[in-house]
């Protein structure tokens, strides 16, 4: 069974490096290690077909769960390699990742990044190509080499290299990598998803097969996985939206059905990635070791429109005091709302209740926050985390 079917490891290197022909051997050795250990990987030389966009593939590399970069002088003088590195840089900046633990660096000995004349030679090369802007990203790569553990190779010692690269790969949690949203799932990927998630599909299907939706017998029989994906989709937010797709099923050909699978599987993995980030953030805010269950039904929480100020929060609470009192009265029929947080932060109660669907988890989180009600920093950070809540949009319309 493949450990990482939807988040392959990428290898970024300069092709046909005549000065260092053994780099091809390094790449082949890495491929063999992946094959033997059931690890999915992607390499432009073998995964790109005629007509495929090289730019799209390079951007996919930038968004990769783990990227192995083989840095040689030819790499530093290749526009395609530097573009891939730029994509990696952008991904880390956009997601505020500072440690680069998802990058494995292999440096050829000729990349003497500490030598000023070597650095100048690389910078001058790009100046002559009228691409001096590449100098900043190359400098960032030099800084990473200086501050990040990396493998150094001069000649290819296969046994020693295998031991070293296996050690680096073993440090990564291969089966729990972030989902790469740039990947276009193939038909084989979709079939593999249905097979590897067979138990989950069966469990979800049993919950939704007797739902209020009108679903054809053919769809029940042939595509229970798609029934689950549509029923549990967050982007198809209303029952009417979901019913439309159930109705369209009988008019869709096989390629259209696979396209729908592709979109909804991508959505599911993206949300799982966001939930992992949310889990980490809640751990940071509340300092609890038991929050995994609370946030398992969490939606896309980390994308608040703007981080609120404390004054924004006070104003919202005061502006909608009457409406929030009515809303909390309604919520008390379903949730156990502690007294202190209901009085002090009614807006936060409303936000929590509209963000989660599981009553037990809502109650647990509300009680945790009630215990922390006197810690203004924790309350403020929690508001920031949930600031794009539907209840805010609802209140604005009143």
Briefly note the structural class of the backbone: mainly alpha
* Main β sheet profile: 5 strands, parallel
What is the CATH superfamily of the largest domain?
Answer: Toll/interleukin-1 receptor homology (TIR) domain
What is the count of distinct domains?
3
Top-tier CATH class of the largest domain: Alpha Beta
Helix segment tally: 21
How far apart lie the N and C ends? Answer: 53 Å
Net shape:
globular
The poorly predicted ranges are 288-305
Q: What fold name goes in the CATH topology slot of the largest domain?
A: Rossmann fold
Number of strands: 5
Strand content: 5-15%
| Arithmetic mean of pLDDT | 76
User: Taking Cα atoms only, what radius of gyration do you get, to the nearest Å?
Assistant: 25 Å
Q: What is the annotated CATH architecture of the largest domain?
A: 3-Layer(aba) Sandwich
Structure description:
This protein is mostly helical. The chain has 3 domains: 9-176, Rossmann fold (3-Layer(aba) Sandwich), CATH 3.40.50; 187-269, no CATH class; 304-396, no CATH class. The chain is 59% helix and 5% strand. The chain contains 21 helices and 5 strands. It has helices at residues 22-36, 44-47, 54-62, 73-76, 79-94, 116-128, 134-147, 158-170, 187-196, 198-208, 217-222, 224-231, 239-248, 254-286, 310-319, 321-331, 339-344, 346-355, 359-371, 376-385, 390-396; strands at 9-12, 41-42, 66-71, 103-108, 151-153. The chain has a 5-stranded parallel β-sheet, with helices on both faces. Helix 14 packs antiparallel against helix 20 (376-385) and helix 16 (321-331) packs across helix 18 (346-355).
């Amino acid at each position: 069974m493949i450990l990482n079917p939807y988040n392959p490891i990428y290898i970024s290197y300069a092709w046909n490096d005549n000065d260092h022909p053994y780099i091809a051997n390094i790449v082949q050795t890495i491929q063999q290690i992946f094959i033997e250990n059931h690890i999915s990987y992607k390499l432009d030389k073998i995964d790109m077909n005629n007509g495929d966009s090289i730019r799209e593939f390079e951007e996919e590399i930038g968004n990769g769960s783990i990227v192995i970069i083989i840095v040689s002088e030819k790499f530093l003088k290749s526009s395609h390699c530097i573009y891939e590195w730029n994509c990696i840089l952008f991904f880390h900046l956009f997601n505020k990742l500072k440690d680069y633990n998802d990058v494995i660096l292999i440096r050829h000995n000729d990349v003497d990044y500490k030598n000023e004349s070597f650095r100048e030679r690389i910078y001058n090369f790009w100046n002559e190509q009228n691409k001096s802007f590449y100098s900043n990203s190359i400098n960032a790569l030099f800084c990473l080499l200086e501050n990040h553990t990396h493998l150094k190779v001069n000649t290819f010692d296969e046994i020693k290299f295998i031991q070293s690269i296996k050690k680096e790969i073993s440090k990564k949690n291969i089966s729990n990598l972030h989902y790469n949203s740039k990947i276009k799932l193939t038909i084989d990927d979709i079939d593999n998803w249905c097979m590897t998630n067979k138990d989950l599909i069966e469990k979800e299907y049993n919950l939704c097969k007797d739902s209020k939706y009108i679903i054809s017998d053919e769809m029940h029989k042939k595509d229970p996985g798609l029934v689950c994906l549509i029923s549990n989709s967050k982007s198809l937010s209303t029952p009417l939206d979901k019913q439309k797709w159930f109705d369209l099923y009988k008019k869709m050909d096989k390629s259209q059905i696979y396209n729908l699978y592709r979109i909804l599987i991508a959505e599911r993995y993206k949300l799982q990635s966001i939930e992992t980030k949310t889990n980490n953030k809640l751990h940071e805010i509340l300092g609890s070791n038991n929050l995994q269950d609370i946030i398992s039904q969490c939606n896309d929480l980390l994308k608040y429109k703007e981080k609120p100020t404390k004054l924004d929060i006070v104003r919202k609470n005061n502006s909608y005091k009457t409406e929030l009192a009515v809303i909390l009265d309604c919520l008390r029929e379903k949730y156990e709302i502690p007294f202190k947080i209901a009085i002090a932060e009614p807006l936060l109660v409303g936000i929590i209740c509209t963000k989660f669907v599981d009553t037990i988890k809502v109650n647990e989180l509300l009680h945790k926050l009630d215990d922390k009600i006197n810690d203004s920093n924790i309350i403020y950070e929690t508001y920031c985390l949930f600031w794009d809540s539907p209840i805010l949009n609802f209140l604005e319309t009143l």
